[in-house]
């Protein structure tokens, strides 16, 4: 009780201006009730199957969602694949370790949904809903997921740095990123509780173990075990340790209890107990799991609304995989306060003219290819007819041969002038018939 009263000034920090987004207004929990009534069921079933097969999916997906939302909003831009013209977010070094299983679960759900209600559910909504279901599956709190996000149209690797926190940053710098997205210090600590599941690769915390920068505050037994685990990490960069060494697969408040005992894995984790402003929240969550769950659930619900895109700012990706945008032609639109997506023969803007010209060229090319294909088909048909005629001719010759070749001949052949020649047993005695 005394603890929560002492936190009162910090509670005020909870109320900070959220990252304003035009799309938030359209979000509703029942957004797909009419257009895709099986949405909840399809997501749940896919999540249960995947987490059963691959228990690391929950942590990976939670981190994927966080990295998506913190870079220009929850718009599934982190799922877009790199192409020859653009290096996408997911291929930046900081996103390198986002696990394939997290991408896979979103694509699996998208495929199932496209069969049930094609072109309706955005990849961003799938990621948000799957994350919630996975968190609850591993023991975390339930929170509402409002739906109706549109998928983003661009994904730039160079924008990742500065938007996604790194373990070697200060509390001040990390909080700067959270603040930019509308989160208070308390919410930042609650969200960091996500490190109660999943793992981190040795390179993320090896600085704390070896050399002059080794962290004296890390629990000595824990440090010894980590040194042993990571001794070959420079040759094998897949070696990783659990974020929560005590209950790694369970979503609980053990992460905060660990921090108090020097069992925090990342430098940024440990800073939360060292820093005077974040420490009270760590203490609270370590002793009161209910408080942690409530704050985490509220903060996650809020994270799902960061920078959400509405109509005119995004689209519903139509492919069964969430890694490509539908089409990329867009022009800035004052009327829509965002971007307008050009359609064929678009009357709305003369700026779409270029789009029409491009499409006209594509149409001409498509026509030329179609004509070429038609010509090939005609050629193939003519060859087939020719082969048929040859076959008929051979058949006629054979019949002719059978009828005309006298029984005394051992064989008959046609001469160059198509006259039947009889070959008798004595090849020298060729006679004309
Ligand atoms: C506060 C600043 C944060 C920093 C510096 C940070 C950094 C990291 C790093 C370096 C990893 C290890 C990645 C790897 O080696 O594979 C990691 C893992 C993870 N992070 Fe964070 N993170 C932060 C906050 C968050 C938040 C807010 C969430 C979610 C709400 C989150 C969710 C996770 C999860 C679930 C994992 C485990 C991933 C897995 O097992 O695949 N993190 N984090």
From TrEMBL:
Binding site for Ca(2+) 1: 68, 73, 75, 77, 89
Catalytic residues (UniProt): 67 (proton acceptor)
Disulfide bridges in this chain: 36-117, 69-74, 123-322, 202-230
Top-level taxon in the UniProt lineage: Eukaryota
Chain ranges passing through the membrane: none
GO biological process: hydrogen peroxide catabolic process
Enzyme Commission number(s): 1.11.1.7
Site (Transition state stabilizer): 63
EC category: oxidoreductase
Cofactor note (record): Binds 1 heme b (iron(II)-protoporphyrin IX) group per subunit. Binds 2 calcium ions per subunit.
Binding site for substrate: 165
Annotated keywords: Calcium, Disulfide bond, Heme, Hydrogen peroxide, Iron, Metal-binding, Oxidoreductase, Peroxidase, Secreted, Signal
Entry annotated with the keyword Metal-binding: yes
Signal peptide range in chain numbering: 1-22
Binding-site positions, Ca(2+) 2: 196, 244, 247, 252
Gene3D superfamilies tied to this protein: 1.10.520.10, Peroxidase, domain 2 (1.10.420.10)
Domain Plant heme peroxidase family profile: 26-326
Listed GO MF terms: lactoperoxidase activity; metal ion binding
Catalysed transformations (reactions): 2 a phenolic donor + H2O2 = 2 a phenolic radical donor + 2 H2O
Cofactor annotation: heme b; Ca(2+)
Binding residues annotated for heme b, in chain numbering: 195
Family, similarity comment: Belongs to the peroxidase family. Ascorbate peroxidase subfamily.
Task of the protein: Removal of H(2)O(2), oxidation of toxic reductants, biosynthesis and degradation of lignin, suberization, auxin catabolism, response to environmental stresses such as wounding, pathogen attack and oxidative stress. These functions might be dependent on each isozyme/isoform in each plant tissue.
Name of the protein in question: peroxidase
Organism: Eruca vesicaria subsp. sativa
């Amino acid at each position: 009780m005394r603890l929560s009263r002492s936190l009162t000034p910090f509670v005020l920090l909870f109320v900070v201006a959220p990252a304003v987004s035009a799309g938030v207004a359209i979000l509703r929990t029942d957004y797909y009730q009419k257009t895709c009534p099986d949405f909840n069921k399809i997501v749940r079933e896919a999540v249960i199957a995947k987490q059963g097969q691959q228990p690391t999916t929950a942590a990976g997906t939670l981190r994927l969602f966080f990295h998506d939302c913190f870079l220009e909003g929850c718009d599934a831009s982190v799922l877009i694949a790199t192409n020859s013209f653009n290096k996408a977010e997911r291929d930046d070094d900081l996103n390198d370790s986002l696990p394939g299983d997290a991408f896979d679960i979103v694509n699996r759900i998208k495929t199932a949904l496209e069969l049930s209600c094609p072109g309706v559910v955005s990849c961003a909504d799938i990621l948000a809903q799957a994350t919630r279901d996975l968190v609850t599956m591993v023991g975390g709190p339930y929170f509402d997921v409002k739906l109706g996000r549109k998928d983003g149209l661009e994904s730039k690797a160079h924008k990742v740095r500065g938007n996604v926190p790194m373990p070697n940053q200060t509390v001040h710098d990390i909080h700067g990123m959270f603040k930019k997205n509308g989160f208070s210090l308390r919410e930042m600590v609650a969200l960091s509780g996500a490190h109660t599941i999943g793992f981190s690769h040795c390179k993320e915390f090896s600085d704390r173990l070896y050399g002059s920068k080794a962290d004296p505050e890390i629990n000595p037994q824990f440090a010894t075990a980590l040194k042993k685990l990571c001794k070959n990490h420079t040759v094998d960069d897949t070696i990783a340790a659990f974020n929560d060494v005590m209950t790694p697969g369970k979503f609980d408040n053990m992460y905060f209890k660990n921090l108090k005992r020097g069992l925090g894995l990342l430098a940024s984790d440990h800073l939360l107990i060292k820093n005077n402003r974040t420490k009270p929240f760590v203490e609270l969550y370590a002793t009161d799991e209910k408080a942690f769950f409530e704050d985490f659930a509220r903060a996650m619900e809020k994270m799902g609304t960061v920078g959400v895109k509405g109509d005119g700012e995004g689209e519903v990706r139509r492919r069964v995989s969430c890694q490509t945008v539908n089409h990329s032609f867009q022009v800035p639109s004052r009327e829509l306060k965002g971007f307008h997506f050009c359609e064929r023969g678009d009357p709305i803007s003369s700026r779409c003219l270029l789009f029409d010209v491009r499409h006209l060229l594509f149409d001409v090319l498509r026509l030329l290819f179609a004509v070429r294909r038609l010509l090939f088909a005609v050629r193939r048909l003519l060859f087939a007819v020719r082969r048929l005629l040859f076959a008929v001719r051979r058949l006629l010759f054979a019949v002719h041969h059978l009828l005309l070749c006298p029984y005394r001949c051992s064989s008959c052949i046609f001469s160059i002038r198509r006259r039947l020649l009889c070959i008798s047993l004595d090849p020298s005695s060729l006679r004309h018939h």
